[in-house]
Amino acid sequence: MEWLNALILGIIQGLTEFLPVSSSGHLEIAKFVLGDNSLPEDSLLMTVVLHAATALRTILVFRKDILEITRGLFQFKWNEETIFSLKIVVSMIPAAIVGLFYNDLIESLFGGQLLLVGAMLVVTAILLLFADHAKTTNKKVSYFDALIIGIAQAIAILPGISRSGATISTSVLLKIDRSKAARFSFLMVVPLILGKMAQDIMGGEINYESNVLVPLIIGFIAAFITGVLACTWMIKLVKNAKLSYFAIYCAVAGIAAVIYSLIFI
Question: What pTM did the predictor assign?
Answer without folding.
Answer: 0.86
